[in-house]
Structure formats: structure tokens, C-alpha cells
Amino acid sequence: MQRAWKRAVLGTTVAIAALMAPMVATSSAAPAATTAVAYTPKAGPIGQHPTATGAQSSPIRRAILDNIANTPRSQTIRVVTWNLDDQGITAALIRAHQRGVHVQVLVWDRNCSSATAALRRAVGAAGDASFFKCIKHSARGPEGKGQLHQKSFTFSRTGTANHVSVVTSYNPTDHANKNQYNVAFQFVSNQTMHDDLKALFQQQQADRPRPARCQTAAPNDGRLFQHFFTNFGVMAYPLDCIAEDPLLTRLRTIPNPGQSVIRVATSGFTNERARRIAEELVRLRRAGASVKVMHTAGAGPVVRGILDRGGVSRLDTQTCGGAPANDVSFNHSKMLLVSLVSGGTRGYRSWLGSDNMADSSIHSDELMVQVTQPAHYQALTEFFEFTWKREAAQC
């Protein structure tokens, strides 16, 4: 039986079945012009799991399809993704282009397969308004050291809302729809977020290696990186020195560890960067924090050993205690969820996006967003625990 959980929307918590009810009033089966009710995208977190069926299945995918279907002529859709083989989404993008929407798509070069051929033919390779580009170089790191791993979808207007952005761990692929747990956050009427992602898109579009450097910006410094505004934040990779890894900085600056609860969800979790993160999680656990880590077979033996010896609760969602990798379902979400006490007051911090917490992310295009609303933290925590429970039951 599927468990009900709750989703936060702009500070209001609403009950839904399984993981997500549709985020909108209209169906993605037809553009808004043919429906009786105006389409209005809703802000908030979205959790998608591979065992939901019917109206509750694939809510991240459905949010993307609804946004595409309701983007009017002369508006712009920008897609940045590591992989794209979902033919329903590619067909929706083609229809949007045909009705006069500016459709701009960036996909990592090694995943520009035959599945993207129809979309590439439809929008062209270098049009003024619409185009599809296969990106060889990380826009935020030196040549040959990174890849385009970010997953984001921005809409200058869709339905009744301007400046809608979806930041997610979800690649629009059949594999993701059938096998993966993923999370997303949809920002609505947030021009700063939209414009920051547009500026990053323009750097990525150039497909030229850029000098790698540590990005250590102060809050409200003006653009991207660790740029905070209205309780949201954006962090773009990479760094050229792990010592300034913002994820490590977050962990190292958690006050009062004995009163903290820390949850980590990742897919890849290996090499030097992961070792440092694991050691920091063990330090917090020994200082009294409650720490849980959920990963896939991508976690290396060194990292697993550090966590196990350090008393950190750990779940491999793919190998189930040493069995061969199980692709029936597994965690693909990337989250850091922290409940902490500072100055006598409990606060909540949530980060989600594409970062695998591994060396591969250091020079790649990765994107994480920060959300501070307690209701959103609660919704993401419930999804984390839902995933943990469902995957632990397979072992």
C-alpha cells in the first residue's frame, strides 16, 4: 500500500497520495489554450519515485511537461541536462518550437545519442531563437576535467506565471522514470533565480573551457555561485581546491552538533572528496549528531568503511548488502538536509540538485539550490525517509 505524505507549497502543507499529486490544475495532455482552467504552476519541492502509478506517477516529469505545454509563443524554454532520451519530453519541446516558442537545449556531448536526433533536427544547431547544442566542455572547469551534469529547466513564462525554474537531480530519461528516486524544486515568479540560471546557461552555451578557480562569494555578492536571496541560494561548481568545497564548509560550520540531525542522499560517493565528506560526517556523529547517509553502489569501499566505523547510519539503495547492483529502483536524489540549533533557536536547511558528492563533480557543471523554509525541509525529509524505508525493504 502506498504511503501518503505531504508537500509544502509556499509555506502551506497539503496532503497528497503516494509522493506527489499533480502540481497544477490542468493536464499536460493539451496546451492551456484548449483547457477550461488556466494553468498556474506551483512553487515547492517535488519527489518522484519509480513505483508510483497512475495520476501519482512521474510528478517531476509531469511538471516539466505541463510547463512546456503552457509556454506561449515568443517565450523561452532553456533546458540543461546530462542526458535526454524521454521521447514524450522531446516531442513536447518540438511542439513548443513549432508553435513559436524559443526552445534552447544543452546536453552533454557523450549523451547526444539517436534519442535526441529528432529534437536536434527540429530546432537546429545554432538558430537565433531555438537551438540544440551538444556540450563537450564543462563551462565551469578546464578542458577534459569535467562534464555537463546540471539538470535545470527554465521558462520565461508558462501559464499564468513568469520566471519559472525547475532545479533537480532528474535526467529526462526512461531510466529515471522507471528506476530512480529523484527530487526537484520549482521556483515560480522568481526572476533572480531565472536570470542567474540564464547567465549560467550562456556560459555553458559557449562550450569553451574556463579557468577553474575556487568560488567563495559572500552572500548577496551579486551573481550565482553562493548567491543568496529571499531565503533561496544557488551554488554552481566547480572548485579547483577541495579545501573550499562549500558542502564541507556547510558541515564544518554546523553549530551544536549534539542537537543536529543530518541526512545525506547521493548517488556517486567516492574518491578524495567523498572521503573528506565522510570524515566530517563521522566527526559530527561522534559529537552527538544524528547522521544518516543514503547512497548507491557508487560509494567506494574506503568511504563505506569510514562511515561504518564511525557509527553513521548508512543504506546502499542499489546493492542491498553486497548483492549485484539492482537497477529495479535506487536513490538518484542528491540532498543535504540539516536540522540545527543556533542561538537557542532550531533552524532548517535543505540543499538539493545534481551534485554527486564525488571527485567527478569538482570540475563539472553542477547546481545545488538552498531552501530554508521549515515546511519545505519537512517535505524533503519525508521523501528521504520514504525512500530509505522502501529501499531498505528490498534488502
UniProtKB/TrEMBL annotation:
Residues 1-32 form the signal peptide. The keyword Signal applies. Residues 75-203 form the Phospholipase D-like domain. It holds the Pfam family PLDc_2. The keyword Signal applies. Keywords: Signal. This is Phospholipase D-like domain-containing protein. The lineage of its organism: Bacteria, Bacillati, Actinomycetota, Actinomycetes, Propionibacteriales.
